[in-house]
């Protein structure tokens, strides 16, 4: 399905993401690019900026610290909330304080709001249910596995990259779900032999050896040093490691003799052109970019929480094999590089993508934006600013209750999702 630019709907599409890692923003960037190319006017907002009391940086920093220094705690929080989807009293209080700020960034000519971040979806869904937001809200699921927090009552439509996350969203309670396929920048695509050779020259990589591109998100988290040395010692491939913004990890890898370690890479399409297989630990946007690039993908050394659930979902879909032991690393990488497993995964990955850039989720968003215009985007009565003193009291009381609770109470709070502020989804 395509949506010709000459028929582009009037009005505005608002996309709300979150700068937690790079995955949510990456999906929002590509949706914005394609919607703009189709003739839509698009506004972008970071949900962390819409949180009260400057909590956005605290949430982002806390999540980063958990993954870096206490991954076991992140796994515990993720598991405690995985089957209930309850946000907990503390999180609900904070999200309620975000509703007014969210409404304020929606111009009068807004036709549809798209979220690529679960907590933003929770706020938008609540506003829809309360009648305070009168235009459609769509959630684009950036993860291949769907935690219940992704599914918000009141959201009109959930868009998934594949039938497996679509089914998971339905199981979590989503009423309307469509498997639309992923959105990836068109710079990612299969490379010819000449393009691979040129890319290897640009990056200073071995011209003939099989190369395993190891990624660990924009923060470079997980057992990256261990995985890189295990790939090297297996002899199956030469590890090429992207550490994101974690420059300290780059230095540690080079000290271990991992020669090809990079920090933030602007030309990821080129680096994928240079590589033969991707090894990843979180199942985020980079995996989708690898599928588009024609690379077979392995999940190994996965980070807790969404890293493991994404690995399981990708394995079930036949898109990325999940390697669970060091003993399996060499034979599985060999199969991905030269065997039928690699050929099957390349074909499955390529089949995800539409030839038409205005198909899939973009078509669904444009169709929602073409619906009849409501008399008002928001209920005027809902725009009254909540009392700052009341907001401060609610947040202070909620935080104090959680932080001062004894061990038994704290354990119960975790089970209810009370610490979900520290659990941001995706990379």
Can you put this structure into words, describing what you see?
This protein is of the alpha/beta class. Helices cover 47% and strands 12% of the residues. The protein contains 18 helices and twelve strands. Strand 3, helix 6 (118-129) and strand 4 form a beta-alpha-beta unit. Helix 8 packs across helix 11 (268-274). The two termini are 30 Å apart. Residues 1-6 and 385-427 have low confidence and may be disordered.
Instruction: Give me the secondary-structure category.
Output: alpha/beta
Using the CA coordinates, give the radius of gyration: 22 Å
CATH topology of the largest domain: Rossmann fold
The tally of strands reads 12
Total of DSSP H or I helical runs spanning 4+ residues: 18
* Poorly predicted parts: 1-6, 385-427
Q: First CA to last CA: what distance?
A: 30 Å
User: CATH homologous superfamily of the largest domain - what is it?
Assistant: Response regulator
* H/E element sequence: EHEHHHHEHEEHEHEHEHEHEHEHEHHHHH
The proportion of strand residues reads 5-15%
**Tell me, what is the CATH class of the largest domain?**
Alpha Beta
In spatial order, strands of the major sheet run 2-1-3-4-5-6
Question: Shape from CA axes?
Answer: globular
From the 3D coordinates, which CATH architecture of the largest domain would you assign?
3-Layer(aba) Sandwich
User: What share of residues is helical?
Assistant: 40-55%
Taking the sheet with the most strands, its summary is:
6 strands, parallel
Number of domains: 2
Query: What value does the average pLDDT take?
Result: 84
